Amino acid sequence: MYADIVIRNGKVYSVGLDGREIRGEAVAVSGGKILAAGTDKEIGQFIGDGTKVIDAGNNSVLPGFCDAHVHASFTAGALLPCDLFCITSDNASMPSEKTLRFLSSCVRRFPKAGKRFVRMLVSGAKRASKKDGREAMTKKYTDKLKEYIDENPGLEIIRGIGWNLGYFGYTQDDMPTRHDLDAVCMDKPIVMESFCQHHLWVNSKTLEICGIGRDTPDPKIGGLWRDADGEPTGMLSEFSAENLVRHRLPGYDQTVEQYKEVFRKYQSELANRYGVTMIFDALCSDNAMQAYREMARDGELTIRVAGCYYADPGLPASGFDEFIARKGKDDVSDTYKVNCIKFFMEGSAMAFYFGEPYEYACLLSAGYPDGYRGHPYWTADEMDNYFTKLNGAGYQIHVHAMGDAAVTHTLDGFEQARAKLGKGARNVIAHLMYVQEGDFKRMGDLGVIACVQPTWMSHEPVMYLSYLAMAGAGRRDQFYPYKRFLDNGATVSMGTDFPVTPPPDHFISIETALTRKIPRCTVGYEEYKDMTLGPPRDPCQDAVSLKEAIKSLTVCGAYQNSWEGITGTLEAGKSADIVVLDTDIESAAPEDIHKIKVHYTIFKGDIVYEKPVGQ
Fold this sequence. Notes:
The chain contains 19 helices and 24 strands. The protein is an alpha/beta fold.
């Protein structure tokens, strides 16, 4: 029997769920499946006149990658609108870490006197920087928007993506408003999506079209920001509030055909290019799901896609019954399926849910009460009811949780569901910025999958702009664990959260997972290059090995989505989902892994990406 494709002269490497390694020099592919893996001599017998032979050049041959938490459908917003990711602040300088540690120490050791001292400093700092910071950043964003409108005069909806609320602050007076956008355009709706997707900044026309005004009820979760007269300011925070625009603005969502075009571009330029052959799309509209279904049916997908339904905190109980009734009806073979419900246990930034209060200086600056630590979006009773019902129906639950209290609260819900059902489920917690020590073992014991985003596992601008001030240096030093999950028996998958963090390049993820340092290709490298994210006594406590990273990126991602019997390792009989690199990744210096490129990506036995000549 001759193969359709033989990859030879390579360094074949994959890792199973049990840690068993598969090594060789060559792989044979036939009928969309892996025929065999072994030495060049062993695989040579499968080469015939019609066999395409790929010379791997003594470079790595790996299983296809899984982006286990990505917003591929949001790529529609990332590819088409005004790009604001590149705009940074000249006035967003933070106090030094030494200063922040000193202020925290003052409040901790001398609560009353320390807080008076901090109030004095914060008051002075806000007076000095408030005007320059807000006005300067507003001008940067609106100038960019004006250029975009001039270049695209036929747009019916003006969209921007990538602005950062942290450049403004979190009080009412700090935030930009609809009036700032009205000065750019008043006769067309403008919708500006934040880089994290948790905030919308819109103009008056958008509010008018969507019927959002003084009498609009506040959503159950999130913020419909209002001025002193009760009128909406144009700022909407968190998904329940954002959906007042997303669901009401005609033409806001892409059509099914537009989504198809977006997904075709995503596949070739942002997935297959980086070796991705399977994804979990963490939030999809109905139109996006329909596009996926049709593309899967027509054989257009060059990746496996797992989707999800969104559990809005305002959803009535009947909505969960509808999820259960819908189960399996959107699935198309093994290429597209929806077997997951997505929950948010908290929001972003000042909506993180911590076990201990935010730093006092941060609360004072942002106008929050002393002792504030956020709150969960779902009560214990709601989790007990819905988690049990959904897991019992065979659904996986995927939860967004950054703060340690959000993680603990979520695990409590999973534990209750497991106790009632008498069995576990492949539930997932994504992001996991800060986790209490006792919860690492609980993750392992409960079989909860930790879906991590390694590109965040370093000192970088967002960390200093927002998170250090919010959580303090002590908590920050424990941010974004990885190794501690593995040490406690948890399965760890790897995602990019693109377009929250562009580009979706998994070689950046691998490098950062290994080094806990900012890669040279990343904004802020010169400022943070000598810093390692971790506690001073052991800054690499959560650094992992290359084997552990590759396992997370391949078979553990497959396991998260129940594809481990189909793909994730280079074993005979599995789908021929294979990545050929231009480098031997095992010989590369960890700090150079971000330079690695994909030479070939193969999906179901077809070459779906080949590196252009000269790159």
